[in-house]
Amino acid sequence: MIHKKIVLLTLVFGISLVSKAQQTPAPKQQKSILILNAKAHLGNGSVLENSAIGFKNGKIDVVTSANNVDKANYETIIDAAGKEIYPGFIAPNSTLGLVEIDAVKSSDDESEIGTFNPHVRSLIAYTADSKVVETVRPNGVLMAQITPRGGLISGTSSIVQLDAWHWNDAVVKENDGIHMEFPSSFKRSGSWFEPGSIEANKEYTKEIAEINSFFQNAKVYNTTVAKERNLILEATKGLFLGEQTLFIHANEEKQMIDAVELAKSNGITKIAIVGGYEAYKIGSFLKENHIGVLLKRVHDMPENDDDDIDLPFKLAKLLTDQGVLVGLENSGAHERMETRNLPFLAGTCAAYGLEKEQALQLITSNTAKILGIDSFCGTLEVGKDATLFISEGDALDMRTNKLSNAFIQGRTISLETHQTKLNARYKSKFNQN
């Protein structure tokens, strides 16, 4: 009986935390807005001093100097002198909204059982009013690619904006790509605190053959008239039509080359690498094949004993210098809670070789291009979504990343979270202003 009560209390407690609504999503933009006199980082490598950024009906309609704009055309004027404007940051390969509390199984929906799951759509499991989701917005992360985990073919991702009632309100690009966890050519034993040995994966050839067989069957199924419907194979159709991207999760040099060649041999043309720790070793290969890389979290230790201690920090620079399109992702331990630190990953890349505006592109325009959403977001340009924010200083520096205003598709969103509420509450308790 005692055990039953504990289980019941855990379920009730977990469900109450998961189901509690957070900040009310902002209504559709009604009044036109003009932001004046800020330093605008356009996200394409350019900076506009003393800028004027205007938007109406959720779309940017002017990007120019503050001296060249007619203020009378706008109903709301924001004087942002001394501040800086940025495009909203984009978090790719994210499980935001898929897990609320790791210890509560009923709130964990990031993976599905099975090996080949292209038909699993992460979007319908996305919880738009997650407490974790709201905590990333105050640092400028306003969009994310919601991505499933597990198996060799993990499932299908979708891209959302982070201020919505429900997943169908949040989505900005549905089923953008399918994610594949490509087998490693090596097996590692031990743990992070006590590393073991590294040896060849004896099953590597067999595992590749299994994946190749799956894609061959999928290609035949989607290019001929099938006698019986197969939902799993049918879910891959977009890969062969060039409508979806195959996101290959891989880090080793051989692993990435084998994965790309396997995909291309099966007629898959849109490919991106996720992770890419050793991608700098095959930069020319990636460039020739027009393959972008979403680099694994750069705030990490080197993977090999003989690696440069600073290698993770330098990877973006090494790849950029080779002409590879590079973005940043933040998966790994505590990935959902760590998503808020995405801008500071870019800041580290700037500290280790990239120009500051190049580093900004890693989490704006470059990521938008890799995800196939650059036609409407990723930069501050006329005609694109007004998804942007105003910071008191450099948004890639944790000391000065302090947002005063944020907008998603022109809507003025709340920057309050349960954490900011607790901060104010206990400041009041101890008479701190």
Automatic annotation (TrEMBL):
Classification via Gene3D superfamilies: Metal-dependent hydrolases (3.20.20.140)
The UniProt keyword set, sorted, is: Signal
> Which InterPro entries does this one have?
Amidohydro-rel, Metal-dep_hydrolase_composite, Metal_Hydrolase, Metallo-dep_Hydrolase
- Asked whether the keyword Signal is assigned, the reply is yes
- Residue span, Amidohydrolase-related domain: 319-395
Residues of the signal peptide: 1-21
Protein's name in the database: Amidohydrolase
Organism of origin = Flavobacterium ammoniigenes
